Amino acid sequence: MAAVIPLIQTRALTRQFGGLKAVDNVDFNLESGKIHAIIGPNGAGKTTFVSLLSGRLLPDSGTILFDGQDITTMPAHKRVQVGIAYTFQITSVFANLSVYDNVALPVQRRLLQRGRVDPGALHQSVFEVLDRVGMADHAHSKAGSLSYGHQRLLEVAMGLALQPRLLILDEPTQGLSDGEIDTFIELVREIARDATVLLIEHNMQVVMALADRITVMNNGKILAEGTPSEIRANAAVQEAYLGGGDV
Amino acid sequence: MTEVRSNATRIWLLHAAVIVLLLAGNFLLPEYHRGMFSRALVLATYAMGYNLLFGYTGLLSLGHAMFFAAGMYGAGLPVYHLGWDVPLVFATGIAAAGLLSLAVGVLALRTTGVAFMIVTMMFAQIFFLATLYFTTWTRGEEGLVLQPTTRAIEFAGNTISLSDPSTRYLVALTLFAIVLLVSLRLVKSSFGRTLVAIRENEERVRMLGYNVFATKLLAVVFSGLVCGAAGAAYGLLFGYVGSGFASSQYSILALLYVLLGGAATTLGPLVGTLFMFYVIDYTSGLTSAYLLLVGVVLIILILFFPKGLLGTIREKWLPWLP
């Protein structure tokens, strides 16, 4: 295999909360163009880990490289500008603003980076994104009045609107119905054609359907990493997480 | 999309109509009311500056009197002591408020919520005390009276006197109209959308790639500039510069005008200011305990219009109001 620079590389990444090592000495590589899932029991440090990647938290020690560039101390908003988008685990769309405005915010941020925000271009891009997630009809509804499933979709649309190189999805299917989950799987597959996706997910069906690679975390450490079939076969994972085949 | 466009037309027509009506006021209003309106227009401009920060960005400052007063002293001191021209001191007034808001913003924006209220209030208190301390130049509470001769603009051989009631009204209206249209443009822009988003969920805005601190600082400075322009105009139009305008009462007035008219509405500050002016005017004619009546009126208003007059009207009937 050719030596490619991983999109994300962490070295000895550590973050403590008091005495608890939420992320403990993690070395992690994320290959470009893949869907990579992180799984693990509650409290395994998954959300803390991706918060370190997105810059919501700063690490106590260790380094993070994005496409070879050291971003360990880069502020969160700059990381977004270099191409790391994060969608929240707890839905945090702007409930009092219209769906249009929710998507316009990331779109105008992206346009701003290339110069000025042209109203025509803004309008067009917003509807492109809304079409992609199938929400163009809701453009003028208040985001807070949408169903939960649609709010989750909007959250992803806001991430998409940034046209990121890496999209971090933190438990995107939590609380969705089965039908909504199927739509979601299709959407993530489509997103993965342009962007690398890092997915934190509890629903093993979703993980197995989507992931090219899986990392299993437990107690702030990486327990195992491999393809979905390797992870299924891993005895340590079975014990720690999958609970002996009720997947 | 035709709906969006027709809303835009409607919004511009409404604002143009308000300005035209106010212009007609110069010729139709009785002298007493024209004087009231002149003052109200300048203070409504001050309230619009406050509204940008409080209504749209969601930053509750309790110290905006310092920006108003910085504009007023920045203009008044050079007129009084150095005899500088009116257009020049109007600019120095605005510049003084701009610099002060930048300095205060950099420090105060390190805090949020209640701490931000207290820090802005403390800075304003320092400013107020400074106007008393440097009494050699400011004459403290007694203040400076700017003579009408110093408040005149020489223009193409003519002398335009700012103490003439009609000129005063028209100058106040011009300032008001400019700030109204600029803020309308602003709140409908990408920048305005970002400010509102910061008010709604700051963390989310950061995670969409915005430098939230820089954006908020820009909002503070913009707000400071508008309030400074209002303060400079007030001093120059009404010929008096005193430390009373730097007192906490004036910070609260801006908040009150905006809350009554409707926070985050472009016309709310005007409505709130005129409403307060006339409630005080009317009740003080009835009894010397007029503040008691004002209080009752305010309570009733808040009961029926919890989001201010225009804020509640927008919520219930006219969702397109900006």
TrEMBL record, chain A:
GO molecular function: any one?
A: ATP hydrolysis activity
Matches recorded under Gene3D superfamilies: P-loop containing nucleotide triphosphate hydrolases
Identify the domain of life.
Bacteria
This protein's record includes keyword Nucleotide-binding: yes
| Example of a GO cellular component annotation carried by this entry | plasma membrane
Looking at the record, the residues that make up the ABC transporter domain are 8-244
Annotated keywords: ATP-binding, Nucleotide-binding, Transport
Annotated protein name in UniProt: Branched-chain amino acid transport system ATP-binding protein
Automatic annotation (TrEMBL), chain B:
Q: Keyword annotations for this protein?
A: Cell membrane, Membrane, Transmembrane, Transmembrane helix
Q: Which locations, inside or outside the cell, does it occupy?
A: Cell membrane
Q: Which GO terms describe its cellular component?
A: plasma membrane
Database matches in Pfam families: BPD_transp_2
**Record GO terms (molecular function):** branched-chain amino acid transmembrane transporter activity
Membrane topology (UniProt)? Multi-pass membrane protein
Q: Where are the transmembrane segments?
A: 12-29, 41-68, 88-109, 114-134, 169-187, 208-234, 254-278, 290-313
- Determine if Cell membrane is one of this entry's keywords: yes
Tell whether Acyltransferase is among the UniProt keywords: no
What name does this protein carry?
Branched-chain amino acid transport system permease protein
Species annotation: Aquamicrobium aerolatum DSM 21857
